[in-house]
């Protein structure tokens, strides 16, 4: 029998003489149990919400004309997937939005990281440009959509520009703050050992800022999608935003919810991929074990 004592509602307490292997096994077991419990409640809450929505619509507790129902949303998605939409194939419209969002996401992320690290490492330049960055950042990004469309037209560039702006400031702010929060003692030690500015930035500052940068990337793709869809709202021929706009104009609640659901699924898949990439690039971080609750 494992020589451990578990205290209800708190972390496991191990008696003297417990081996490291037993402690590790107990921690992994507690982590798996907690993960399963979290998954159960996530699925249960989702099932409850969908079930109550369907029941409320069927029992006419809510007006299905305005709120539709889960079955109606799925039926509309199936119709779009098999028969297409009024604006062509569903998959083509989805690809248009994804293309705009992906280009804006990568361009905004890369630029935000480079500018954030560059200004974070150069206090003189950051002092000069800070007032301009604050001024531009104070503008609600969505109001720039009409300007971009007026300048660049209804095509891809205007949507990419809006997605770029939505992503850039989020990534820039986190990269800049991550650089400023780098351990000063480690930087001083690296300089004592003769490291150049570039070596300090590459080996100390950037790894220190990676957690900040990845935290921004997790939410940035959602902002890129928002930028692309808002641009399509203002003016476009294709895209998920255009489908939502048409559904709104025809009072098609099922169509609006179907398009929103599609965007949610795509964004969650992108978040999952981002988590995998982060875990692969940040293997140096120690694994976090949670207490058994």
From TrEMBL:
PROSITE patterns: ABC_TM1. Belongs to the binding-protein-dependent transport system permease family. This is ABC transporter permease. The keyword Repressor does not apply. Residues 94-274 form the ABC transmembrane type-1 domain. It is found in: Cell membrane. It is a multi-pass membrane protein. Keywords: Cell membrane, Membrane, Transmembrane, Transmembrane helix, Transport. Its main location: membrane. GO terms for cellular component: plasma membrane. It comes from Rhizobium fabae. InterPro entries: MetI-like, MetI-like_sf. The chain crosses the membrane at residues 36-53, 101-119, 131-154, 160-179, 212-234, 254-277.
